[in-house]
Amino acid sequence: MKPLSIEQITKITDTQANAQPDLQITALCALENAHEGGICYVTSLDKPELLAQLKASAVFVPESAKGQNLPFDGVLLYAKNPEWAFILLMKYIDAQFQKHTPGIHPTAIISPNAKLGQNVSVGAYSVIEDGAVIGDNTVIFPQCYIGKEVTIGKNCYIYPQVVIREQCVLKDYVILQAGARIGSDGFGFTFHDGKHQKIPQIGNVVLGNDVEIQSNACIDRAKIASTTIGDNTKIDNLVQIGHNVTVGMSSIFCSQVGVAGTTHIGNGVILAGQVGLAGHMSVGDRAQVGAQSGVMNSIPAGQTYLGCPAMPQREAFKQMAILRKLPDMYKQFQQFQKETQSFQKLSFWGRVKKLLGR
Fold first, then answer.
1. Strands annotated E in 208-339
2. Measured by CB atoms within 10 angstroms of the end CB, which terminus of the chain is less buried, N or C?
3. Which of 68, 96, 124 is where one domain is finished?
4. Are 171 and 56 within one domain?
5. Helix, strand, coil fractions of the chain, as percent rounded to 5
6. Which domain holds residue 53?
């Protein structure tokens, strides 16, 4: 990064410094590898003595630290939210780095019937088909494919080797990380005349504003109508979204989630890694599903589910507690089984004596 003064950093992050406005910061760093010239952050001061060991030149701390005599030799920057202040600084530094070559590369193949907005960049060997519309300031990196009649909004980033098939729609500020696949055919077949017959998938995919799809995730086009992903939803690497799925706003799907077709997912839903959802069901707003859960039935709004099959969190914890006792329970069962077999071998009067404790 280019050096930034403490004064510049306070303006970027809306924070206040306790000293040395001219001090130059040359790196962002984590607490565990803090060094001279670096800046980091702490979210709480439960153990202020740890600051004495910190070798960074500056650190973001909570505003509540004002007036405290903290054991830190560098500059303290007081922030309402130290982590967010650090993120704002990261955003500023990231924006200074040009990740693409502006303009249209001579090897890009762009249909004369495509429409490109102002300041659009298209990388080497990318293809843009007939009828595609690309919004202002959108960047298409090398080796991307933009199908016929695709609409991409403004300020989108389409990283290398992304495929967006025909008639799909991306609204503004969408980010597609490398290798994402948008609008492949939904997995639709019917068994007829002794074999699986393909059902045409003639719908599309619609991605809302500020959606981010990470590397190698696949969003299938609808059988009819649209597979839709709501504004501000974030989808991690290797996620599969089936045809005709609808996802609300500000939901998060972690890596390797699989969502079968015609599933409705609400706003603010969190699906942890490797969650699988059966088709034709719904997940209510703000629901959360724990990692590796298998969801067979609909989940009400605001609920947390775990397990396979997924169940309410409290019930899942009870089952987990019982499972931990299974080895002891099995030993007790074996002992009971031996005693039962021994009892059955006794004569009638032997059993009577056994029962009477003689």
1. 212-213, 218-220, 226-229, 234-235, 240-241, 246-247, 252-253, 258-259, 264-265, 270-271, 276-277, 282-283, 288-289, 294-295, 304-306, 311-312
2. C
3. 96
4. no
5. 20, 30, 50
6. 4-96
Cβ neighbours, 10 Å, residue 53: 10
Active site residue 264: no
β-sheet with 252-253: strand ranges across: 121-122, 139-140, 157-158, 175-176, 212-213, 234-235, 252-253, 270-271, 288-289, 304-306, 311-312
- Tokens 């249209």 locate to 104
pTM: 0.87
More confident call, 71 vs 151: 151
Backbone angles phi, psi at 190, to 5 degrees: -125, 140
Q: What is the CATH number of the domain that holds 70?
A: 3.40.1390.10
User: Are residues 245 and 332 both part of a single domain?
Assistant: no
Residue 172 lies in a domain: yes
CB 78 within 8 A of CB 16: yes
According to DSSP, residue 22 is labeled T
Token pair listed for 109:
């193949």
The neighbour count for residue 243, using CB atoms within 10 Å, is 26
Candidates 35, 105, 192, 243; catalytic one: 243
264 phi and psi, to 5 degrees? Answer: -105, 125
Same-domain status, 288 and 341: no
Q: Which two tokens stand for residue 231?
A: 């504004």
Domain co-membership, 283 together with 206: yes
Residues 175 and 48 in one domain: no
Query: Which amino acid belongs to residue 292?
Result: Q
Residues 201 and 301 in one domain: yes
pLDDT tier at 358, thresholds 50, 70, 90: low
Local structure of residue 47 (DSSP, 8 states):
S
Q: What number of other Cβ atoms are within 10 A of residue 358's Cβ?
A: 6
Q: How many domains does the chain have?
A: 3
Residues 82, 87: Cα–Cα separation, whole Å: 9
Choose the final residue of a domain: 96, 118, 140.
96
The residue behind tokens 């924070």 is 15
